[in-house]
Amino acid sequence: xxxxxxxxxxxxxxxxxxxxxxxxxxxxxxxxxxxxxxxxxxxxxxxxxxxxxxxxxxxxxxxxxxxxxxxxxxxxxxxxxxxxxxxxxxxxxxxxxxxxxxxxxxxxxxxxxxxxxxxxxxxxxxxxxxxxxxxxxxxxxxxxxxxxxxxxxxxxxxxxxxxxxxxxxxxxxxxxxxxxxxxxxxxxxxxxxxxxxxxxxxxxxxxxxxxxxxxxxxxxxxxxxxxxxxxxxxxxxxxxxxxxxxxxxxxxxxxxxxxxxxxxxxxxxxxxxxxxxxxxxxxxxxxxxxxxxxxxxxxxxxxxxxxxxxxxxxxxxxxxxxxxxxxxxxxxxxxxxxxxxxxxxxxxxxxxxxxxxxxxxxxxxxxxxxxxxxxxxxxxxxxxxxxxxxxxxxxxxxxxxxxxxxxxxxxxxxxxxxxxxxxxxxxxxxxxxxxxxxxxxxxxxxxxxxxxxxxxxxxxxxxxxxxxxxxxxxxxxxxxxxxxxxxxxxxxxxxxxxxxxxxxx
Length: 505
Ligand SMILES: NC(=O)C1=CN([C@@H]2O[C@H](COP(=O)(O)OP(=O)(O)OC[C@H]3O[C@@H](n4cnc5c(N)ncnc54)[C@H](OP(=O)(O)O)[C@@H]3O)[C@@H](O)[C@H]2O)[C@H](O)CC1
Ligand SMILES: [K+]
Prior knowledge:
The protein is an alpha/beta fold. It has helices at residues 6-19, 24-42, 57-71, 89-99, 138-148, 194-200, 212-217, 227-233, 259-271, 286-292, 327-339, 348-354, 374-381, 387-401, 436-449, 454-480, 483-501; strands spanning 48-53, 75-80, 105-108, 121-126, 153-157, 180-184, 202-206, 222-224, 248-252, 276-281, 297-300, 316-319, 345-346, 369-370, 404-407, 413-415, 421-423. It folds into two domains: 21-218, YjeF N-terminal domain (Rossmann fold), CATH 3.40.50; 230-501, UDP-N-acetylmuramoyl-L-alanine:D-glutamate ligase (3-Layer(aba) Sandwich).
């Protein structure tokens, strides 16, 4: 799914209005029906809605939603800033319709203090949407701060008011703090960055049937990985195939005290479906690996740390989990890197060793996949002020080095050598534990070995990792789920993917 800027969204709106064609007021009605439907389907306990409306079209949506919720049996009140202020044309049409309904009272912001926000009341925010042009000030700032202080459930229409759509938030002290954001048609970039995460709550994207022609024809540099993209990438296993069909994985991982990382990476490579899996690890890991991963074959690369990277070019190598940065490991790894020309998966200590000298970057084979977390990224490429700047630096570096960068984050970003970005939306905070990255390395190495392109490997691999984590958190909770549970859920994800490829009779 493409991510459009606020400006492109406005153009998308206009394109739909003129090409469908549909009057703009009808499009507002469509958007509002989607919101009112979502609320009435999901809010069973909260039967009273208090809707805060601005003067633009976001406010217009809010006013229309108020009418619809009232018609669905909710108690509804509407707050506007100033009835004498200029409303957008469509907001005004909806305001007139609302005035015909005697059961809804229209109040002023200054009435908030006397209003009864009982525990059955939900607060609906329709102050500003994609038209926000500056930080909130004055009465708007005050009302947002007053509402944020309430314990009631809070729902934002399209965008939490005060949050920009496609640039980093500058003024954090006046943004509506939503529990749920019901956004129209596509993701907004800010929702996917950690700086804004605390304002959106859970995001639901509502389909309001904006023009498909526009969405297909307009280029976007930023995308969200959705089921449609995953289904176009995933290849079910062929019946007449053998282990040679699914490639050879070489996990290069582990050192004394960190053999567990090699186990996790190896297990996930196996569980992702590689034909043959080998692990190059120090001898101290021999019994551990042979016992915990009997399906994999062991190569000794040293005693307590790897000091011999002797690898065949027909293997797909994933390097880094638990490797350590012993000088002998480093020397041998950098020598190997200088002489190896096939794409690699590089993670953790492999990245840390490369980052010791920026000259090492040029030894990374083209089309390799680098999987840094923010700290590793900083060591490799330098410090940035925020996650937006970090992503732009990653785009520059991916283009310059001709590599794929998997920037691990709450919504991991995949950057291809053209600088295009794919945000992942599977996964959860249960992955914020040691070992989660080792699993991702195993998954990616396995997919690349099986013949997926580098780009498809990144997209499918990151999505799989997050989806398995979502299944694990449902079973065990975000707190208790372990990386091992994530590996064990890979099977359930593949079952679901296979089911989606079956043709119905
Ligand atoms: N395609 C869709 O997704 C649809 C979206 N709809 C809804 O429309 C809004 C966008 O509506 P728009 O009127 O463009 O913008 P807003 O309602 O967000 O706000 C615009 C007005 O607010 C003023 N403004 C902006 N920032 C501030 C501020 N900090 N303080 C005070 N006033 C502010 C702005 O004034 P300017 O001075 O900037 O000109 C405007 O007057 C979208 O989010 C959806 O909810 C459609 O209903 C359906 C299709
Ligand atoms: K809003």
